[in-house]
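It would be a great kindness if you could assist me with a short task in structural biology. The matter concerns a single protein, recorded as an amino acid sequence and a row of backbone structure tokens. Could you please explain, in whatever detail you think fit, how the structure tokens follow from the sequence? Thank you for your consideration; the sequence and its tokens are set out here:
___
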Amino acid sequence: MKNLFSIEGKTAMVTGGSRGIGEMIAAGFLANGAKVYISSRKADACDATARRLSDTYGGECISIPANLAEMSGIEKVAAELTQREEKLDILVNNAGVSWGAPLDEFPELGWDKVMDTNVKGVFFLTQKLLPLLRAAGSAEDPARVINVGSIDGIKTPIFENFSYGPSKAAVHYLTKVMAAHLVKQHIIVNAIAPGPFPTWMLSTGVGGGGDTKNTDWAAVGRGNPRGRVGTPEDIAGLAIFLSSRASAFTVGEVITCDGGSVAVS
């Protein structure tokens, strides 16, 4: 019964890891003894975050920038990981985008970009990394895939981001489908559905313009049942649970991390 939540010595990949929830999860993994790869579309930002996290937590954080909305980017990440590692213990599919526009004006690009990144990218990156995940997993210690969805895939979003909620609902269902196919291969798949966290994406939605440092997060938090927005510890703690021995019998679940937003809706 000891070390139920240990991820010491594990190797993880966190997509969308240069900022926001992905950076929070990567930081939590590093602080708890994992080796972490991060990926994001912007190379400079990805490289800078990897350096900062390595310096802050004294672990090894490695940047593999790529656009995971495109097969070329997915194949790049898979190829570089395969060159560097013989196995991958944890894959966190967190990379995601949104698009806001009134219903009558919502463009095709705003649909395709969101679906390609949020759904296609999750499926095909997992597919390409299956050899590494299979190599890591065993009956006693399965490999883990954690898909990051959203409460907007569970309840109706308050913003005019008409492709975002459906894309996250698709991620939630894809999680269950993939879990059913991979559980007997010693790969466990689950999903997290975050609520409000102090991220660039939410800042743009609540009028902060993406300025996460100067957005009034206290005001945003007052609308949440817990009276605050999420913290890095909240989301990293759940990701660590889903990566550890503690969750080895939890399969195909979508777990909210939202301060009660869905429960009281």
Residues 11-195+230-257 form a domain with the Rossmann fold fold (CATH 3.40.50.720). The longest helix spans residues 108-128. The chain has nine helices and seven strands.
